[in-house]
Every structure is written in structure tokens, then in C-alpha cells.
Amino acid sequence: MTEEEIRKIEAGYSEAKIQHTCVEWYRSRCKTWFAEVLSLNFDPRLLLYAVPNGGQRSKASAGMRKYEGVVPGVADLIFQCGSNDGEYCYLAIEMKTIKGSQSSDQKKWERVATLFGGRYVICRSIIDFCKIMCEYVGKDYDKELSILLFRYPTYLGTAIDVEKEREKLKRFTRKLNRGYGKRLDQD
Q: Sign of the C-alpha dihedral, residues 81, 87, 91, 95?
């Protein structure tokens, strides 16, 4: 595939699907990147993780997340590793679609993250993600991009269509509501 073809495909993706492809690409490459420390019983996949901060929740669930310490605006992905040049202690990645924009909470969190030694980036495609990660860990972007372009379809293998899943859930909830004679999805 070409960069242009991938960008066209991803233009129709949800933020969640873009994030999924980025995480899958990282997981496929990180063991090569961190090969020298694998003998230390270290799994580099653990360095990149999602922060489940957004999404649809009931009032009770949202209250519980707040009680547990959820902070509005935290970046979608955290790469818990210092930059290759030693300038940053971690990388915070906010995923957005081509048209997406930061909320005021995300802008506030960006200021805090950068103030305390993190690098904060907005990522809109797997191509952006590849470039950001290569720069951050000091890998050859051209080499990694050529691998990404060749293997791109493999990163989609387990991706779910979030919108289709939401629609299934809505249909199921409507069916349950008819069966019980009341609305289950209301707080």
C-alpha cells in the first residue's frame, strides 16, 4: 500500500479504530526495537497503554470512575518511556480523526503533561504515529514506514467496527426494553 491509500482509508475511521491500528503496529515492532533488553524479562508491549477516560457511561459508572481517580482530558495513549535524546520522560498521545479537535480539558491536561516533563502529541493516522514513535525512540522512520506500508492490512485484523457494535447494543437494549416494558438505558 501507499501512504496516500492508507490516509484515504483512515479518513473514514473512528478515533478508536485509528488507535487500534497504531497499537497493533507498535506491538508488532517493539520487540525488534527493544531486542537488547528482552533478556531482562522485559515485555516492551507494556510500555504503551491506553487510558480508558472517555466513552459512553451511565451516571453510576461515571461516578465510580471519578471516585477511582479518572481525570478528564488525559491523553488516549501513554508511552511510559523516556525519549531517545533524554529530553522527555514519557510520551502522551491524543488520538483524533482528521476533523477532530481537543476539548478544553484535553488542552489543560496537555499543559500539565508538558510542564512535568512529558511530550504531548496529537496523532491523526497510523502514518503520524509511526513518524512520532520513530522520532521519539530514535528509529529509522523510512525503514519503519516501508514495513508499515507493506504490512498495513495485518494491523486491521482484530479491529472491531465500534459504530456497528454500538448499533448492536442499541438494538439489544430496545429489545430488552420491549420485553420488560420499561427503559433500561435511562438513569
A: negative
Q: Between 32 and 114, where is the model more confident?
A: 114
> What CA–CA distances, in Å, run from 79 to 36, 52, 93, 179, 187?
19, 14, 8, 46, 36
Q: Quick one: CA torsion of 94, 49, 1, 127, rounded to 10 degrees?
A: 30
CB 122 within 8 A of CB 22: no
Q: What is the pTM of this model?
A: 0.78
